[in-house]
Amino acid sequence: MGTLEMDTDHTPSPSDSATDEIAVSVEHLTKEYSTRDGDAITAVDDVSFDIESGTIVGLLGPNGAGKTTTIKSTLGLLIPTDGSVHINGVDVHDDYRGAYENVSAVLEGNRNAYWRLTVRENLDYFASLQGIHPKTVRDQHDELLEQLRLTDKANEVVKDLSRGMKQKVSLAISLARDTPVVFMDEPTLGLDVEAARDLQRDLRTLVDEHDRTIVVSSHNMDVVQSLCDRVIIMNEGSIVVDRPVDALSDLFDTRTYRVVLEGRLPDSHRETVEGTYETSRWKTSDNRTEFTVAVETPRRLYDVVDILRDGGVAIESVSSNESDLEEVFLTITGDDGENMLEGSG
Ligand SMILES: Nc1ncnc2c1ncn2[C@@H]1O[C@H](COP(=O)(O)OP(=O)(O)OP(=O)(O)O)[C@@H](O)[C@H]1O
Fold first, then answer.
1. Are residues 230 and 263 in the same domain?
2. CA 240 to CA 267: how far, in whole Å?
């Protein structure tokens, strides 16, 4: 695997802030939770980053990295232990209502829609909640439905729509609030490839034509690579990578494979594999060996196979996890605490 440079200096230079409008500013955010037995867990540990207006940023990391805690703190749904968050210059904790006017979120799939109402009734309902008479925003709603290709579903009950359509309704409800900043958790989860592409295209249009700022959390590598301008990767409560997506080709070129062997790999051969490649999740018994290996190109996998063959152990299976960032994270951050990202900075 190639090297991924660490870049944790997120403080923008004065010239940056003069030219680019900052939509989201997170400064020294720390969140501790107390566990049942009275211990403290630091879920987010002194995290800082700025997000410029008109960009799509991917917030990634393995399970438990602190993404949700960061997003919820940014939205004002959690009170941080330390640090501050500004949305379009408004302090989320000092002026929650003011900040809330600038941000909306599609947090858990499509749960923000009322399934028994039609698509249009949902939009009307949420407008009313904001104190807006639905009639006065009918044109905006029509435009949004058109944009998301939902016009012919406007009078259908949400419960009867396909999963992809429900996801779009959820997005429409969130976007109808017309906030400059939108947070989305796994926006393409459960969508088929075509629907996921459609949605990505729609999001890009919104950002480019309406100057929205979108923060996406996802485990899907392809989505992140094709959708985001910039990627922030968290691990164990800290930011380990913060780079433009184009600078992360190493990460996206990396593919992980789960290898299963019909016997115990000799120690010498295991050492060779471990010494040459990024590996993780080894499981060994007398009649079976399993491990995960990350390689830069599928061809490099043949080199791994050569070492295994030399070890005299038959290969039961090699399966690819092409779109699963989780596996790549586990491998690059190391099961044993060794952090490849840090090591290459
Ligand atoms: N309410 C809570 N009480 C105690 N610990 C919590 C609480 N919420 C989260 N944590 C812990 O904080 C850490 C970060 O969790 P968080 O949900 O922010 O991670 P995540 O990156 O969003 O993970 P995932 O991808 O699994 O959603 C984890 O160790 C988690 O167990």
1. no
2. 32
Residues 6+ apart with CB under 8 A from 166: 110, 113, 158
Q: Are residues 22 and 98 in the same domain?
A: yes
Pairing outcome for strands 22-34 and 40-52: antiparallel
Place of tokens 């005299």: 312
State the total domains in the chain. Answer: 2
Task: Tell whether 277 and 147 lie within a shared domain.
Answer: no
Residues of the domain holding 305: 254-343
Is residue 67 within 6 Å of ligand 1 at its C-beta?
yes
**Low-confidence residues in the chain, pLDDT < 50:** 1-19, 323, 335-345
Answer whether residue 8 is part of any domain.
Answer: no
Helices (H), ranges, the chain: 14-19, 67-74, 96-100, 119-129, 138-147, 163-176, 193-210, 221-227, 249-253, 267-276, 298-310, 325-333, 340-343
Query: What's the pLDDT score for residue 333?
Result: 62
Q: How far apart are the C-alpha atoms of 276 and 260, rounded to whole Å?
A: 18
Q: Decide which of 222, 251, 280 is a domain's last residue.
A: 251
DSSP 266: P
Regarding pTM above 0.80, the answer is: no
Q: How many Cβ atoms sit within 10 Å of the Cβ of residue 323?
A: 14
Pocket test for ligand 1, best of 30, 36, 63 (most atoms within 8 A of CB): 63
Ligand 1 centroid vs 34 CA: distance in angstroms? 12
Q: Please choose from 30, 31, 33 the residue to mutate so as to test ligand 1's pocket, defined by most ligand atoms within 8 A of CB.
A: 33
Q: Do residue 189 and residue 315 come from a single domain?
A: no
Instruction: Check pocket membership of 65 for ligand 1, CB cut-off 6 A.
Output: yes
Side-chain half-sphere of 49: how many Cα atoms within 13 Å?
A: 26
Residues 241 and 270 placed together within one structural domain of the fold: no
